[in-house]
Design brief:
The complex is a heterodimer of chains A (about 90) and B (about 425). Helices cover about 55% and strands about 0% of the residues of chain A. Chain A has about 90 residues and is mainly alpha-helical. Chain B is mostly helical and about 425 residues long. Chain B contains 14 helices and no strands. Chain B has helices at about 15-45, 65-90, 95-115, 120-130, 140-170, 175-185, 190-225, 235-265, 270-300, 305-315, 320-345, 350-370, 375, 390-415. Classes of the chains: A mainly alpha (about 90), B mainly alpha (about 425). The interface of A and B includes residues 48, 58, 60, 77 and 78 of A.
């Protein structure tokens, strides 16, 4: 579960970064709606693409937090550190 | 279970009179910087020494951008050291790992702040950057991806790496216990958690290393891709930026480690062995940078185009020679001292710290010389040469930023162990 969710977040981040990078290219591709109106050398096809690109990069690294913080569904097979130690 | 009331390690939570005095002085410098920034906001960039290139004989980028590059450079060594410690199992450097991570985060915050005063309308600049900038542009890479992506990655690494120590601190009663509990986020130091953290640390390090090489190269591309600016357009800019970033960052890390060693009485953790590693690391990086400098000299003086020669001449013999030669001398002197230590095998912490200071003086000088001369002496149109003298406003803002960085570092050392706690002290009593 944890590993799957982490992979999904990493993938989502990479896709978001790659898509916003591609959409920000100053291209004019006939037939492709988002590119059709953007004359070469203009701003990106959609506003706030740079922000989405950054968000994508952040998501990739956020996956590490999710992986490490998400609690286990079942207790770990090992005893906790210091178990049996007198306190 | 009952909370143990015992002092936190490395003088966390203890503030001496000397520290308080230092904090007051630093706050004064920060206030002066804020005042200068308010003057600049109300009167405009005319209160600085920066002017339009060519028509007004000035550079459009000055001290702010030079220090932006310097701060981003300093951040390099921090997370690199931390990541290399993790990836290569460099146990000798484990004690400086957190010192390095904090250095990276603070340096990146300062880098973000040092760009803002360079913009006439800082808020508009930030919003428009997120709205219209092109992710393919080196400017975008430098001012947003480095600061947002790289800073975020460093914060994630730092947060996860500090959870174990936060859990240890949370086991002791005190005013900051809530903070440590929050940071620990339920960490219990079970074998499963340790294994998970080891795995995450490895992959994070692996992801951060290429990202920071890209980030620092991007900073070099801001200059290296400008074909119409003699002195900047060069394939060497990106790798030289990466190397100089390493030089200044490792140099500053050495200085910070020495200060922490003395003030927090951490001689048992920050051993001469740690400084030996850092000194050798710095020596290799300094040697690489001197090599880049020699290649640059040879290319610029052998058969350079007219405008390129003008910039080189201004650097070597003109108005910038008084910054250029001392910077070169500082780098060479540091390299000589480090090499001598390496060859004789006799390492001295004092000499290593001196080398750290020398390379940082050189780094600031070199950063200024990368930014300014090409603008004042590199015009391809027939404009007379320009000049640049920073004003009190620029000095105050940069001074304020350095003071802010120092203040943040001091505050951090007072709320959290700045050196990773040794394994033997693992006692998760807060469960």
């Amino acid at each position: 579960m944890r590993a799957t969710l982490t992979r999904v977040i990493v993938l989502a981040g990479l896709i978001l970064a790659a898509m916003s990078f591609a959409l920000a290219l100053p291209l004019r591709i006939p037939g492709v709606t988002v590119f059709a109106t953007a004359p070469a050398g203009s701003d990106g096809a959609v506003p706030y693409l740079p922000a989405l690109f950054i968000l994508g990069i952040m998501l990739v690294f956020l996956a590490a937090v999710v992986y490490e913080l998400l609690p286990d569904r079942s207790p770990p097979p090992w005893p906790p550190a210091g178990a049996g130690r007198r306190r | 279970m009952a909370m143990r009331v015992e002092p936190l390690p490395y003088r966390v939570g203890q503030i001496s009179t000397g520290t308080l005095l230092l904090i007051v002085v630093l706050l004064g410098v920060v206030a002066q910087g804020l005042y200068a920034f308010s003057r600049q906001l109300t009167e405009g960039l005319v209160v600085t020494g920066m002017r339009d290139i060519g028509t007004m004989g000035g550079p459009a980028w000055g001290l702010y951008i030079a220090f932006d590059i310097y701060f981003v450079g300093v951040s390099f060594a921090g997370i690199t050291t931390a990541a290399l410690v993790r990836l290569l199992n460099l146990h000798a450097l484990r004690a400086v790992s957190r010192l390095a991570e904090v250095l990276t985060i603070i340096a990146l915050i300062l880098a973000a702040f040092s760009v803002l005063p360079d913009l006439g309308q800082p808020l508009r600049g930030v919003v428009h950057l997120l709205k219209y900038a092109r992710p393919q542009s080196p400017f975008f890479g430098t001012f947003t991806m480095v600061i947002a992506g790289y800073l975020f990655a460093s914060l994630v690494y730092f947060f996860l790496d500090g959870r174990r120590d936060a859990a240890i601190c949370a086991a002791r009663a005190g005013r900051l216990q809530w903070f440590y509990r929050l940071w620990a986020a339920g960490y219990r130091d079970t074998p499963a958690e340790r294994e998970r953290h080891r795995r995450v640390g490895f992959w994070l390090s692996l992801a951060i290393l290429p990202m920071l090489v890209i980030a620092h190269s991007t900073l070099g591309f801001v200059f290296g891709l400008q074909v119409g600016r003699p002195g900047w357009f060069s394939a060497l800019q990106a790798p030289a930026f990466v190397i100089m970033a390493g030089v200044s960052g490792v140099g500053l890390l050495i200085i910070i480690a020495a200060i922490v060693r003395t003030t927090l009485e951490a001689q048992d953790r920050l051993t001469p062995e740690v400084f030996r590693w850092l000194a050798n690391f710095l020596m290799v990086l300094t040697a690489a940078y001197i090599y880049f400098m020699l290649v640059d000299w040879l290319t610029a003086t052998y058969a350079a185009p007219l405008h390129e020669s003008r910039v080189t001449s201004a650097l070597l013999f003109g108005p910038y020679a008084r910054i250029y030669w001392p910077s070169v001398a500082a780098l060479v002197a540091a390299f000589y001292l480090l090499l001598r230590q390496f060859l004789t095998g006799r390492y001295s912490i004092a000499v290593t710290v001196l080398c750290g200071a020398l390379v940082n003086v050189a780094a600031v000088g070199k950063r200024l010389l990368i930014v300014v001369p090409s603008q004042t002496h590199g015009a391809m149109l027939p404009y007379p040469s320009g000049t640049y003298t920073p004003t009190w406003v620029e000095y105050s803002i940069i001074g304020g930023l350095i003071a802010l960085g120092t203040l943040l570092y001091i505050v951090f050392t007072k709320v959290f162990p700045v050196i990773e706690l040794p394994e033997a002290r693992q006692e998760m009593g807060h469960r």
